[in-house]
Amino acid sequence: MGVKNAWPFVRKKGNVPVAQPKVLPVSPESKIRVDVCSTHNTLIRNLYGNTTDLNTAHLKLESCLKKIGDKTRVRYYIDGEPAVEKRQTHADRHQGRQNAVDKAATAITKLESRLVAKQRIRKHHIADAYKNLRLAFHWRLEHRSSFVEYMSNEGYDIVLCPTEADVLIASECQPKDAVMSCDSDLLFYKSIPTVWRPVGPCKARQFVPYEKSALLGDLGLSTTQLTALAILSGNDYTKNIPHLAIYTNAKLIKDLQGGERQNERSIVQQYLSHPRVIRQINKEDGVWTTHSYASACKVFVDMKQDKAESSPSAATGSGSGLSDASVTPPSYESLQEQMMTFMRTFNVSKTEAYKARVAKRTTAISGGLDSHAEPKPVNPFDTLDKPDPSRSHQYRPRYSPKVRFEPSKEQPAPAISAQYKLKPWKEPPEKPNLPEPEKPNLPEPEKKTPTATIKAEINDDNRFGRKEMMDALSFEHPTVTLSLDCLSSNVHGAVKDDSIAKTIVECIRGAVRVAWETKKRCQMLIGLYLEDLFYPSSSPGSPRPAVPVTAISKEDQSILDSLCPRLSSKEMNGDGDDVGPAGDGQDDGSNTPFVRSFLCFLYSGNLPDKSKIGSAVNTFIVRLQDMGHLEKSQGAKTDMLKNVKEYTPSFLVRSVASQLSAELKRHYKYGAKRLSEKVQTMIKKKKLKSDQEVHLTSQEPAIQLFVQANAITGRSWRLSPLSSEGHGYMTFTEIELAAFLHKKDKMHPILKKLIGCKDERRLTQADVICDWLPFQTPGVLIQRLIAPVDPRTPDGDLLRGRQKKDAGIVAAVKVVEPDEMRAHINTLRCKGFDPRAYQEKGYFLRGSIKTDGNDLQLLAYKVRELNSVKFKRYKTEVLPDRLLTTTAGTSDYLTEVHNIFKSAADVEHLLGCTPDDTDKVSYLGLDLGQAFVVGAYGHMPEDKSPKIGKRHRHRRQKKRGSRGRRRRGSGKGKKKSICRIQGERYINLAAKQKAVAQPTLRHRTWMNRQKGADLKTHSSPPTINIESTASSTVDQPSISITESLSISTIESSLAPLRGSAADFAAHVQGREMHKVHLNKFYNDRRFRFKKFKRMSQKARQREFEHLADSLLRMVGGSIGEKKKEEDKVVIGVGMGRFSSSSRLSSLHGTFEAYFINKARSLGYLVVGVHEFYSSKKCPKCEQFVGQNESIRRLYCYHCKKNMHRDVMAGHNIVNILRGHVEQQQRPLYLHPVDKDGHYPWLELPQDAQDSLQQAGSNGSRTGRAGRADCKRQAEGDADAKETGGKRAKTTLAKQKAETTKNKAAAKQLAGQ
């Protein structure tokens, strides 16, 4: 301890010496005297507090001490037994150690109890135990004696002092000696000239020299006064008078009379007689006399100490707290051993827990997860970005770009390589002017009846109709699908009553299940009908003919036309793919009423009415009954009362009717056209005869044309669309949901409360779906009962800032009142509306949900986007540029860069920079592929840096259990960011498909193992006899479960639906036989199949996000923030197109669409780039490169470097972008060259091309500015030659050739 506040006092008085790396004695004869206990306090505690081998501790302490200097010039001092003069200090320290032992015992007991109870053990729990153990440590006297004996045997000059080391050092110190100690006591002894104070850790220790002469000069005191100051200011032997510490005592001693003529004891007497000291003594009611300072005077003046008798109350110890040896706390060693035992057990438990987590995660992926256990929210398909300790190289997170500032070293040429060569450009052959074929006399397509004109303004009627509102919103905004994850969690979030929430969830899941089963049954009946119609068997069980029947009755033709309308002239001559995706309801409605009526019959068993559509459905039902696929007894229900079902039939089948009608038209109309094209291709390849061609005509049903073409191609398509066993997504409107929920008696009080009905009468369905819901804002029922959208604070206010961000997508969905909705629509339709200033955000609910029983999706209108801008309903001068705004929506359509930057004005308009500021633009080039999803190269100005490194998350509130504020360093010693270094940077990234596709591969592996699992482990009944719901021509045999029965064996045993051996009836029969097992696997109550499928989709989405974020960070951006206005960024994407059919489908197209939409939504300019020569020429030397054994590895013979194919292509794409931005022209070395050495793509006169070619060959590496000057000079020379030396009035742009003939004419004119 020493004198209180001595070191701060000395520094404050201006004595701040410079630290030295080593103790430097004054002369060769002088010695270094070391107080071991004070200088190596921490090291001694670490060595002797945790070791059982004293020799090892002695050896380590010796290795640290011998660094001080030569053993012949260093004398070491070890504290001995306690002194009488320090009795009170020893007692206080002994009590402190006892308190620390008690606290350590409590902390260790708490740790052991938490470990047994399997509670989480945090860092501060262990830190508390170690802290108290450190405070309870003391260096035992026998250990010190053993160390002195060890050092003496090694030849060191070391002594075990009788009492304190300070006194012996002061008595033996010579005028030229140096003393090394951390105790401030040694500064105040007269005999010690210099004290070297160690600072810093042992590995990087430095020493601060305090010279006695310099210290006395700074303090203005004599040596006698300095010693008296130590006696009076509080030390290990005597306490100071309260409020009279070292700072005040220094001033008082200076005021005393006598100075150098007095000794220390006389100064103490004068000090006690000072008026201020007397006044302070009287205040404290204490007695301070010269006898109070006798012990201190004996030590500092006489340099003597007496040994104390050993007693538990007077524990021994030095001023550093290490020399207490006579009394050893009896429980310290046991506590230390107990702590070590606990840490060993704790480390073993951590290792076992980690192995268990890894095993569980592997089991979840491999298929060992219990089907009855609820899967944890941890996604087993996520890729963990974790370093591999088995690898020696430096770890880099996946998708992290590489940055280097110097070109790589030259590399030897590969043993096997082939250099690319120039192939002359060939103009594509012109199409011959053949006479147009005569169009067949086909009936003109029927024009769709125009919809009602939308009103210019919404009226002010209080009963603002729901249909009118939705029509207006559909006209103004696009419809999107918002995913809200689990249906059950959303319903429980919207409805606080668990029983009500469970009723709602079961009702919706039941509707999905019944609707999907009805749709699947309808598909089966259609397939069975078509197979019996076109491939009839002579007798039950006999083989069916290979060639379909061509002659069918008019009745069957009418049924086929009802199932799928005939091909129109537009569909036969156009693309034929005018049917939207199945399930979105985008169909012409021609077959939807028929399908809907038939689905209602299948669900309810009630025959349709006598209308035209009802008659057609009745005819189809009778035909199915005649074939034996439906029971004839159902026809007797015509005159009976209608069956009452759990769900309203017309509402239940509306969604599946729309899906199925779209599927049928897509399958038969689109399939007939594609199959006819395939037949024509096979005829051209002479695989078929010319008389087998299929002629599309409207004289025959589309299904019949499809069956004929499918038979010719070997039945490559299914006879009928057939859904999988897993329940798909169904769309239900709020009116349909209200009708479903009304049939649940438990929901009547909730619906009454929503409507505000206070009558005691029973609530009817018309009260809900006719009188209340049609006049409410879309989304009211969803908000109250399905999903907690548009959340509010407890006070009813909108969420703001962090609250809104934490709430997620539900906070962006708005449920507004009719008045607000009316004002929004009127604002968009007013005459003075400017779409360029439109800034609205969020979503308006459409009033429909989409669910498969597990996941929930909402259909909503995206308020940020306007259909009026997308379809250009405004004048051109007020339409915003689609490249700079998202008001018209985002798409993955790419426009070639030369069609965007046509002039310097385009550069200034799109990038906001003049031609002189184009060096401040950042570029990112992307080359997409199969083996590598993307190869990227980034270029940034020198004054900007990419965001490469650790991704910092947003700051959050302090975690529970954290210990106060986090300590922040001063910043010294931190590595400077490598991205801030000036100079040219090479930023590139290549992402393998193997890495990006890991979630898909893991899910595929999981599915294969799940399907291959033995069904006996899933508690299946030993024997099952299942009869089909529809009567079949073949008897249904019973099956028994064997040891090898699994989903894979079941699905592989089903009859094929395609090929020459296709048998639809046998396939349906096999499905019905194993319906229980298939339904249990795909649609179990816990939705394991759907949950894991969604997890894999989320994991792949996160992979895309991670990769896209890394790409944007290469140009200083991120997917979590909008592009700043001052940042000028151009992203170029290669426009090469290819398809992949081997193994895993290529992800480049999916990722391209995702990245382009994401980047454009953040404000980035994304353009397309033609990839000609981008993978064959070096971007530095502009020469052809060579190909190694691998197509992905190229070698440049000029630069003598290996290059990644996709990264090099990205670099060339960046050069193309820079060329168009700076010169509005593609770089010359990436232009195609014809056999005459001309550039067909270069839209310049021939003389200008020759001059530009010469400039490129002479100074291709002199910079872009030099080539631009040559280009301008060449243009000027050609212009002057054509006009006879006079400057042309017309610009060069007007003389550009449009076709090959015009180019030849311009060339001839330039040569005249």
Q: Kindly report how far apart the N and C termini lie.
A: 104 Å
Strand order of the largest sheet: 3-2-1-4-5-6
Strand content: 5-15%
Give the tally of β-strands: 23
Q: What's the total helix number? A: 45
Largest sheet: 6 strands, mixed
The helical percent reads: 40-55%
Protein structure class: alpha/beta
Cα gyration radius (Å) = 45 Å
Low-confidence stretches are 311-330, 367-376, 442-457, 576-588, 634-641, 952-982, 1017-1043, 1257-1312
Specify the oligomeric state.
single chain
Averaged pLDDT, please?
78
Q: What spatial form do the alpha-carbon principal axes imply?
A: elongated
Biased composition (Basic residues): 947-977
Domain Cas12f1-like TNB: 1148-1213
GO molecular function: 5'-flap endonuclease activity; DNA binding; metal ion binding
Pfam families: Cas12f1-like_TNB
Describe the structure.
By secondary structure, the protein is of the alpha/beta class. It has 45 helices and 23 strands. The strands form 5 sheets. It has a 6-stranded mixed beta sheet with strand order 3-2-1-4-5-6, sandwiched between helices. A 6-stranded mixed beta sheet has the order 7-16-15-14-19-20, sandwiched between helices. The N and C termini lie far apart (104 Å). Residues 311-330, 367-376, 442-457, 576-588, 634-641, 952-982, 1017-1043 and 1257-1312 have low confidence and may be disordered. Residues 947-977 have a biased composition (Basic residues).
